C-alpha cells in the first residue's frame, strides 16, 4: 500500500465484508468513506446511499452516493476485491499502473485505497455486453483506445510478465487438492505433464515472433469496457491484470472475450473483422492505409498469442476453483478454455511456423 500513499492517495486500514447484503454493508461503507474523505466526516448516515452496480467473477462494485451539506450529491465507486485474489493479482503493480493510466485519461480516477479494495470516481456509462464489442464502429473505437493505452509508459521494469505469470499459475494450479470428492476426480483427469509441454512449445514459438512489448491490459473483456451512449465515449477500466506483455496477447485475449463467459467460440471474430480491428489499431488516423504486410504480421501474432490467453485463463481458473468462494464453475471453465486451446492449436501453430519459415514480406 506504500505505492498508493506515495502519490497522496488516502489510505484506510478498514475492510468491508463482501459477503453481506448491501444494506448490511452500509454502516461499514459510511465509516470507510468518512475515514478516507475527511470532508464527509461530520455527515450522518442518512447522507449516504449504496447500491450494487456490477461485479465480475472476482470483484464486487458498489455505487456510493453522498449528499453533501451544500445539497450536491457526489457519486463514487467502491470496488471490493474478491477474497484470495491477491493470490493471482499483484496489487502493488495495479496501484502504480492506475496512477499513470488515470493521468493519461484511462479508467476511473483513484480516490482512495483501503484494506480490501479501492474507491474510484464514478463513470456515468453502461458496461458493454460481449455482442457490443463486435459492432464495427465500437470495434474500431476499442482498437484506437487500446493503441493509446499501449503507448502509456509505466515506470519500472519493462520485462514482459506473461510467461512468468503463466508458469507461476502453472506451479500453483498443478499442486492443488480439493475437499469435494467430485471436484478432486475432475481435477485428476488433467494431465499437467501435457499442459507443461504445451506451454513450453507455445512460449518457444511466440518468442520467435519478436512481438512488440507494451503495457497491456490483459483482461479486456466486455465487463471492462464502458460506454456513455449520449457522448459516444468509451472507457477502458479495471487494470488488475495489467503488466508489460506482448501486443498480440492483449489483442488475442480481447478477441477470445467475444465468446463471453459462456465460451461460445463461434463468436470469435473472423479474419475480416480482425483486419478491421488491426487497421484501426495500427493507424488510427488512416486505417485504410495500413500495409498488407503489417496486417498479416499482426494476424499471425494475435492468432498465436490467442492460444496463450486460453492457457493463462485455464490455469487461473484452477486456482480460483480452489481459492474463490464465488459460486462459479471455475473447474468447468478450465476445461472450456483448455479444450478450445487444443481445438485451435494446430491451425494457429501452423500459421506461426509457416510465417516464420516463409519469405518475409517487403
Entry keywords:
six-stranded mixed beta sheet; Aminoglycoside 3'-phosphotransferase, Chain: A, domain 2; 362 residues; 12 helices; Phosphorylase Kinase, domain 1; alpha+beta; kinase; disordered N terminus; ethanolamine kinase activity; 15% strand; 11 strands
Task: Describe the overall structure.
Its EC number is 2.7.1.82. This is ethanolamine kinase. Belongs to the choline/ethanolamine kinase family. The chain is of the alpha+beta class. The protein contains twelve helices and eleven strands. The chain folds into two domains: 109 residues, Phosphorylase Kinase, domain 1 (2-Layer Sandwich); 230 residues, Alpha-Beta Complex (Aminoglycoside 3'-phosphotransferase, Chain: A, domain 2). It has a six-stranded mixed sheet with strand order 1-5-6-4-3-2, sandwiched between helices. The termini are far apart.
CATH topology call of the largest domain: Aminoglycoside 3'-phosphotransferase, Chain: A, domain 2
How many beta-strand segments?
Answer: 11
Text of the CATH class of the largest domain: Alpha Beta
- The fourth-level CATH homologous superfamily of the largest domain is Aminoglycoside phosphotransferase (APH), C-terminal lobe
Give the CATH architecture of the largest domain.
Alpha-Beta Complex
**Helix-strand string:** HEHEEEHEEEHHHHHEEEEHHHH
- Radius of gyration, rounded? 21 Å
C-alpha geometry = globular
Layout: helices, strands, pairs:
Elements: H1 2-6, E1 11-12, H2 22-36, E2 48-54, E3 59-67, E4 73-81, H3 91-103, E5 110-114, E6 117-121, E7 126-127, H4 130-133, H5 136-150, H6 162-173, H7 181-188, H8 192-209, E8 213-216, E9 225-228, E10 233-236, E11 243-246, H9 247-256, H10 271-282, H11 292-323, H12 330-357
Parallel strand pairs: 1-5
Antiparallel strand pairs: 2-3, 3-4, 4-6, 5-6, 7-9, 8-11, 9-10
Helix pairs in contact: 5-10, 6-8, 6-11, 8-11, 8-12, 9-11, 10-11, 11-12
Organism: Helianthus annuus (Common sunflower)
Enzyme class: transferase
EC number: 2.7.1.82
Amino acid at each position: 500500500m506504500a505505492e498508493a500513499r506515495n502519490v497522496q492517495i488516502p489510505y484506510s486500514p478498514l475492510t468491508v465484508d463482501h459477503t453481506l447484503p448491501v444494506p448490511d454493508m452500509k454502516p461499514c461503507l459510511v465509516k470507510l468513506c468518512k475515514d478516507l474523505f475527511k470532508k464527509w466526516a461530520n455527515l450522518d448516515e442518512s447522507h449516504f446511499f449504496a447500491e450494487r452496480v456490477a461485479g465480475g467473477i472476482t470483484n464486487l462494485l458498489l455505487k456510493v452516493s453522498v449528499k453533501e451539506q451544500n445539497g450536491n450529491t457526489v457519486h463514487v465507486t467502491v470496488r471490493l476485491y474478491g477474497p484470495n485474489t491477491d493470490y493471482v493479482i499483484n496489487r502493488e503493480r495495479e496501484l502504480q499502473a492506475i496512477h499513470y493510466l488515470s493521468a493519461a485519461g484511462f479508467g476511473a480516477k483513484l480516490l482512495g485505497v483501503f484494506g480490501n479494495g479501492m474507491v474510484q470516481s464514478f463513470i456515468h456509462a453502461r458496461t458493454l455486453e460481449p455482442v457490443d464489442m463486435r459492432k464495427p464502429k465500437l470495434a474500431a473505437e476499442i482498437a484506437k483506445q487500446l493503441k493509446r493505452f499501449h503507448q502509456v509508459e509505466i515506470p519500472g521494469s519493462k520485462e514482459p510478465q506473461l510467461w512468468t505469470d503463466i508458469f507461476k499459475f502453472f506451479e500453483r494450479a498443478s499442486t492443488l487438492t480439493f475437499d469435494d470428492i467430485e471436484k478432486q476426480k475432475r481435477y485428476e483427469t488433467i494431465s499437467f505433464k501435457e499442459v507443461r509441454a504445451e506451454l513450453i512449445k507455445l512460449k518457444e514459438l511466440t518468442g520467435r515472433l519478436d512481438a512488440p512489448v507494451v503495457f497491456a491490459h490483459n483482461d479486456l473483456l466486455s465487463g471492462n469496457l464502458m460506454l456513455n451512449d449520449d457522448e459516444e465515449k468509451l472507457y477502458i477500466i479495471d487494470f488488475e491484470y495489467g503488466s508489460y506483455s506482448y501486443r498480440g496477447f492483449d489483442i488475442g485475449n480481447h478477441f477470445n472475450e467475444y465468446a463471453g463467459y459462456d465460451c461460445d467460440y463461434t463468436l470469435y471474430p473472423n479474419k475480416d473483422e480482425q483486419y478491421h480491428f488491426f487497421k484501426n489499431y495500427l493507424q488510427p488516423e488512416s486505417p485504410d492505409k495500413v500495409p498488407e504486410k503489417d496486417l498479416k504480421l499482426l494476424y499471425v501474432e494475435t492468432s498465436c498469442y490467442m492460444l496463450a490467453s486460453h492457457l493463462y485463463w485455464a490455469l487461473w481458473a484452477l486456482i480460483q476453483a480452489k481459492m474463490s468462494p464465488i459460486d462459479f464453475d471455475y473447474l468447468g471453465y478450465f476445461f472450456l478454455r483448455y479444450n478450445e486451446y487444443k481445438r485451435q492449436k494446430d491451425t494457429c501453430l501452423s500459421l506461426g511456423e509457416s510465417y516464420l519459415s516463409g519469405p518475409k514480406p517487403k
